[in-house]
Predict the 3D structure of the following.
Amino acid sequence: MTVLTHAFTPGPIVASGQVKLTLMAPVARFSLRLRAANIPAVSKAIGVDLATTVGVRAANGTTESICLGPDEWLIIAKPDDADTVTKVCADVYASATHSLTEVSAREVTVRIEGERASELLTIGCPRDIDSIPVGGGCRTVIDGVTVVLWRDAEQSFRMDIWRSFALHIIDLLCTGCKEFAAE
Amino acid sequence: MLLIHCPYCNQTLPELEFTYAGEAHIARPADPSSVSDEEWRDFLFIRTNVKGPHYERWRHFHGCGRYFNAVRDTVSDRFLITYKTDDPRPELSKLLEKSK
């Protein structure tokens, strides 16, 4: 069997036009699951708030968290901080049971920005993009693929896509950019 | 497209984020080895197949990932209510009254 692995070299994908796409540099990602009673202890250890409302984010420097479900969070950190996050969580494990899984290699992140960025997302995303507040995010679907969407500004988004689906979604977004350019 | 209210996200979201997961409130026998073949068959396969308001499970697959329950009219596809898995089964007469 031949397996083709894409390198996913960070850099611009669509560099000009009404929407720009950029493949972002790798970051450390963690999937965190825990019960409500243990939130304060784990949150203090990692040094970032863990919101209890789905879609709400928190940040402390380069470490970010987003609540994806009633007992599920995604933690993003600098690649250098990955070992620290693992260690601080292991230290509180005895008193605050949780499940922390490093999923850094699972996804790649694409930055989508430009005056029509939110319009571009409607090419495959059924959710009302206007309902996502600036500084918020959500896990949703685009053309059948689950993605995590972070809204950093009115027209600036980050999309975390599982690697195996990333080429398809990036291709879809490029098609949308070409359609804008052809108008 | 149907808009479905997820009781865990507390948002009304497009149907494409959800998957259907069969009839709700079907409890697995506590002691499977003590039930008869007929009871086990009923648990596995026999469903009410209602025409009208149907108690069913849905999963917010492309979202919080949670299963929840809903009452949906199988004729009109209208959702009367969605509620968390742990919540008690809502009374149908009250739901129908409310939806009028």
In short: Residues 3-27+46-99 of chain B form a domain with the Folate-binding fold fold (CATH 3.30.2270.10). Chain B touches chain A at residues 1, 8-11, 13-17, 61-66 (CB under 8 Å).
